[in-house]
Design brief:
The complex is a heterodimer of chains A (109) and B (114).
Chain A lengths: L2 E5 L2 E5 L4 E8 L5 E7 L6 E6 L5 E4 L2 E5 L3 E6 L8 E8 L5 E3 L3 E6 L1
Parallel strand pairs in A: 2-11
Antiparallel strand pairs in A: 1-3, 3-8, 4-5, 4-9, 6-7, 7-8, 9-10, 9-11
Chain B lengths: L4 E3 L2 E4 L5 E6 L6 E7 L5 E8 L14 E5 L5 E5 L8 E8 L8 E2 L3 E5 L1
The chains are: A mainly beta (109), B mainly beta (114).
């Protein structure tokens, strides 16, 4: 059974304090790994797709990386507006996404 | 608008009533998905439509849940004889088709069963 585990469950950072979020996965035949950001009361907002080990994607203060067993979302010099829940999902057989429970990030100024 | 649209945004109903939730996907997107998000949990897949193919219903939790889609447009998720455990946010997503690519989500319907 495909599984996604995200850690930590919650993370508090000071503004400017860089850190990483982890997404470990077990799937039979990874077709894609996705990162989303979700703000309270909103639907998930797409950030990145990674397709193969070694791939990296960047957007502003965020950088996503992928290995054969996990993905990291690196946040460099975060700002309060980066506060959100970050979701990781994998697409294996078929087209459905299997999601982790998310990491709640709070950045204090 | 250009995004996925869901209605209503909030629905409060009594246990045992039927509810219908609506989703308008992004124009041109052939694939449509429904997910459920319980408080503090990740998204659970419910059902997937792709063009005129038979839908993938493998995530529907019971026969009280059903969904329809008209062509490549609007979809309706129906929950019959609602139970308190059905309380959750129901999210709809669409994507460009049967390829590996991002799914784009609406803001969901928050369903509360009294």
């Amino acid at each position: 059974e495909d599984q996604v585990t995200q850690s930590p469950e919650a993370l508090r950072l000071q503004e400017g304090e860089s850190s990483s979020l982890n997404c470990s996965y077990t799937v039979s035949g990874l077709r894609g790994l996705f990162w989303y950001r979700q703000d309270p009361g909103k639907g998930p907002e797409f950030l990145f797709t990674l397709y193969s080990a070694g791939e990296e994607k960047e957007k502003e203060r965020l950088k996503a990386t992928l290995t054969k067993k996990e993905s990291f979302l690196h946040i460099t010099a975060p700002k309060p507006e980066d506060s959100a829940t970050y979701l990781c999902a994998v697409q294996a057989q078929g087209n459905k996404l299997v999601f982790g429970a998310g990491t709640i990030l709070r950045v204090k100024s | 608008g250009a995004g996925v649209s869901q209605s209503p945004s909030n629905k409060v109903t009594e246990k045992g009533k039927d509810v219908e939730l609506r989703c308008d996907p992004i124009s041109g997107h052939t694939a449509l998905y429904w997910y459920r998000q319980r408080l503090g949990q990740g998204l659970e897949f419910l059902i997937y439509f792709q063009g005129n193919s038979a839908p993938d219903k493998s995530g529907l939790p019971s026969d009280r849940f059903s969904a329809e889609r008209t062509g490549e447009s609007v979809s309706t998720l129906t929950i019959q004889r609602t139970q308190q455990e059905d309380s959750a946010v129901y999210l709809c997503a669409s994507s460009a088709g049967n390829v590996v690519g991002p799914q784009h989500f609406g803001d969901g319907t928050r369903l509360s069963i009294l």
